[in-house]
Each structure stands twice: as structure tokens, then as C-alpha cells.
Amino acid sequence: xxxxxxxxxxxxxxxxLLKPPKKEKILPVITISREKRAGGGxxxxxxxxxxxxxxxxxxxxxxxxxxxxxxxxxxxxEEIDEKRLPLTNQLIxxxxxxxxxxxxxxxxxxxxxxxxIAQRGYAIIVGRxxxxxxxxxxxxxxxxxxxxxxxxxMKYDKLSRKKAVEWLKKxxxxxxxxxxxxxxxxxxxxxxxxxxxxxxxxxxxxxxxEIIVRLAKRRFKL
Length: 222
Fold this sequence. Notes:
Elements: H1 2-14, E1 29-34, H2 40-51, E2 56-58, H3 60-70, H4 74-78, E3 92-95, E4 98-100, H5 103-120, E5 123-126, E6 138-144, H6 146-156, H7 161-183, E7 195-199, H8 205-220
Parallel strand pairs: 1-5, 1-6, 2-5, 6-7
Antiparallel strand pairs: 3-4
């Protein structure tokens, strides 16, 4: 029956009796999934600078928007953001005098906000599993040489080598489990992305930026 209606509509369009449906203009979006201290956030801002206005990075702003939607403190949203927490499907009103966000509410707000960002286009979205919500986006995954990540964590986060290793492994596991819980996908699998880049001594953040910019210009005909 559906095919019959499609054939009728096609004939009406051909005869000029029915206007063809308007195709929504797809605006360029880049998503960046990343490991901690692999430089994904920094690369996002460098890419935006290279591409120029009206390109904009969306990172911490997403947390702010979700906090505003749920009338919560930013810090409370950060406690669930990119982590897997054993939360119920309701907003818990009292827990040590604070209001917490459920995973269900978080997901609903996240989908709404990322959809709005995608509709504006010229956006680089860092993290939050945005690659699973925007099919037409240029999807990038930034990995880091582990030794290089450890050295950066030791330097900038003032951690001992042992603590740096534990911290990075814990954060990687939390992010992976969060994405699996929210989207039922494994973020470590390369087929989710258009490009996977491993930063480190042999490939700098500048190199990664140049590769992404070149690919974005080709993909979106900029």
C-alpha cells in the first residue's frame, strides 16, 4: 500500500500537481570523541580557529545547558556527565541535601541540546556520544599514546606516575561504560568514526588539527 502511495505522489509531482518535499539543508558538524589527556578538547578549539567563523566548539556549554534545563547546579550535572552512575529513573530530590539528575532525564536533555546545536551547524561537539546522535557528522576519535598521556597527566595534574596511570585508566573505563549505558555502543570500536587519530610523539596536536581541517573542508565543501 505504501509503495502505491509513493508511485501516485511521484506521478503527481511529475505532472506539477504536487510540490516535492523540501529537503532540509544539512549544516556541517564535527564530533570529537577522545581519551583523557589525548588532546581532543584542545584539538577541537584549534580546528574551530583554523576553520574560522561561524564555527564554534561545544564542550562545557552542554553541561551548563543541561544544568539550566533541570535547574540544577553545574557541579551536580558534572557528576553524571560521561560517567556511569547507579541512578534511578527519577529525579532524586533529597540526597545529602542536594538534587541529582537521573540518567533518563540527562539523556532526554542531552538529545534535545545536541539536536539544537546540530541544526545551527558549524559546530564541533566534544564528547557526550554526539557521534551516535548526528548520523551526517564528521566523526573523529582522538586516542593518545599511553606513555605520552601519562607524562601530560604527571605534569599538568601534578600526579605521581602510579596515580597518573590509575587516574587515566579509571577515566577511560568510566567514559566507555557511560557510552555503553547510554547508547549501547562500544566507543572503542573504530567503525563508529570516519577517522581515528592517535596523538603522541609521532603525531602532534597541530598535525591532528591539520588532518581534521583538511577532511572537514572536503566533506563539507568549505
